[in-house]
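Subject: mismatched residue count in predicted assembly?

I count 704 residues in my input, but I want to confirm that the predicted structure covers every chain. Input:
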Amino acid sequence: MNAKPTRMAAVIRDLQKHYVLKSETVRALRGVSFDVPEGDYVAIMGPSGSGKSTLLNLLGCLDQPTHGSFLLGDEDVAQMTDDQLSTIRASRIGFVFQSYNLIAQLSVVENIEVPLYYMGNLTAQSRLRSIELASMVGLGERLDHRPAQLSGGQQQRVAIARSLVNDPYFILADEATGNLDSVTTEEILALFQRLNDEGKTIIMVTHEDEVAQHAKRVIRLRDGEIQFDKPVVDRKVFTAEQIQEIAHNADVASRSAD
Amino acid sequence: MLHFRTVKLGTKSLLLHPMRSLLTVLGIFIGVASVIWLLAIGEGISQEAQRQIEDLGAENIIIRSIKPPDESGGNIRQVNAFGVTRNECSLIGDTISTVDRVLPIRELPQKFAYTGNANAKPIDGRLVGCTAEYADVTRLVIERGHFLTSREVALSRPVCVIAARLAEKLFPSEDPLSKQIYLPEKKEYFRIVGVLKHRNATAAIGGSLAAQDFSLDIYIPITTMRVRMTDQETKRTGGSFSTQVFELSQITVQVRSADDVPRTAELVEATLRQNNPGRQDISVVVPFELLEQAKTTRLMFMMFMGLIAAISLIVGGIGIMNIMLATVTERTREIGIRRALGGKQKDIVLQFLVETITLSVVGGITGILMGLFCPIVVDISRWGLEYFAPQLYASLPEVARVMRPTIVPISIPVAFGISVIVGVFFGLYPAVRAAQLDPIEALRHE
Ligand SMILES: Nc1ncnc2c1ncn2[C@@H]1O[C@H](COP(=O)(O)OP(=O)(O)OP(=O)(O)O)[C@@H](O)[C@H]1O
Ligand SMILES: [Mg+2]
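Triage response: the counts match. Full output below for your records.
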């Protein structure tokens, strides 16, 4: 018996996803099982077409598996209706996308608040929390800016703040650094690490070994199956000073960009 | 759960494309404004028509004498009398129990001059012989003096009452009361005992009753007319003479109550045609029936106008739908993001519905405001037309010149309601389509 039992953010058992097309059935996932304990930092890797995005969509409750179960907390997502899935997405999952996916009409704070809006939780208090999150990602002085007025890195930081606003089971990041240069990638990875150090669970899909090296664990997919699932050796960790320095530089950069 | 935020967001999204939104709003704006305009103008026209009929009196029956067409080239010596007679007039009054009063009326075109102003050219007008009750039955209002009295009628006095316009023309700077008016064609003098207030003209009704303009009338006792001018009228036109003989131009029969009018009208016709069923020299006009007809016509007219307006609103609605479909395609990505971040299908439906309803309500409200300007705009354009194109203006039908557009109060909530319904109806399909997009595919959309 474990001395302190870790709670599971997600439990995946024999997850399968088939796409039925006219001429054939694409078996994008062929039975995937793993657990994600709270506080884990997982990198999902694999060649193109191996099923990474498919898996992430299932984890993000954007899609239903063809077979298998996916327990989120105590609930089996595989049995949920569309509305229930939406509720779960609004309240329990944080998304960070490769192309940021902010809403053009909305300001920085308003973008951060969107999940709360769909939870029906918009209050003066939640506004304060959104502002706090914006400051945490270094955008406290750009609350009223539109996405178009921000750089890629800044937009991605808004997206990260947004993914945190509903206090999710985990953050799902699909190629979150794919559109960013190496400096900005570091910035985002430092932010992820900081969040993970604070106890947040992160699951990210990446092509780059460099990026995956920052995670605690790598799951490698191949043809819809897990090729291996193992802890990262020689994990790259930012020191506290580095995190501060990166945050500071990003701050300076965004200020001089004005 | 319509959040203020949803409306704010909708407005923001619409303002992303101000020109596009403006044009879309314009469709509804025109539709709503035209609903109100068409109804207001339709109402104005039919009220005017109704008023003109009512001026004839709903409880009256009007019998007009009609001059038969000249078959005989005019050279003939023998002249036949035509039209209703004094006998028939008293017969109707005496034998039909539902008849309250009968008014014999005889009209002659005539020239008038003021004796105190011998140089002035005589003015063309109309001489009307009538009884004292005429003022009451036709609701004449006296400005000064008094109308012909029964005593003046009984005694065939040479007195007259003169219409407002004619009074102004004949007496630009003097008080007409007690002045003598001279009829050069008849070589008669009449003393003015009363001046009338302005009276509205009546329009022609059907083919049977010609339009009447009362502004140049002079009223004298019908008895005086008979004594001094007889029933025979001889006119010289060019070199030849033409002679007509008629006793009365018109009998106005006043019935005790409007309910008795149709029955009485039948009796009147029967009385007049008892000896000669096919006679062509009279026509019986029943304003009450015309009024009923006018009401039906009005309803048809309103429905027709409503139809036109409805079509323009549908066109506006299709405009909205078209734009919203384009918007949904354009914003597929946004829809994907919203779905990923927890938006339910109904949230997406609501979001797009709010946008279409905002568009249509803005169109509706501005359209209503524009609609309220209808009477002013009509007045201004009439004024402008009269000023810049007087001939064109004069050629307009009487109704178009005098009718006042009347905003139908119900048309405002109806127009507003319709614009909301148009928004919902034409917005629903694009909104539902947006909501049914697969979130994953929507997210992948470029
Ligand atoms: N909606 C779909 N319909 C049909 N087949 C699909 C669909 N989505 C994914 N697939 C197929 O499923 C397999 C896995 O696709 P997936 O997008 O998960 O790959 P991936 O690992 O994310 O690849 P990449 O690294 O290129 O993003 C592929 O063969 C793909 O063609
Ligand atoms: Mg992928």
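DSSP finds 16 helices and 13 strands in chain B. Marking this ticket as 'not a bug'.
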